[in-house]
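User: Can you predict the 3D structure for this chain?
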Amino acid sequence: MQRIELIRSMLESHPTDNFLQHALALESMKIGQDDEARALFQQILQRDPDYVGSYFHLAKMLERKGETELALSWYQKGMEAARRVGDQHAYNELQAALEDLQQ
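Assistant: Here is the predicted structure, written as structure tokens:
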């Protein structure tokens, strides 16, 4: 909980900081607050579609919750973003997760 409070206090000064929001989303997932994490990831990606790391975590969470079609969509969007920004490592991770889910 201490980490979450620290991140929240930093977000007060920088409410649209992608890194801080992403960190808060990950911490929220750890304590079972998936709805908050989902909203944070979606805010990041709406504001900055090239923030590639959030696609993977959002899709993984959706996959875990049984929202398979939505997870597939986010993996695909993430692959497009990774290609756009030239992040081959992220592209490969997203592609592998997508292929695993499609099996």
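Residues 87 and 95 are 12 Å apart (CA to CA). The chain has a mean pLDDT of 96.
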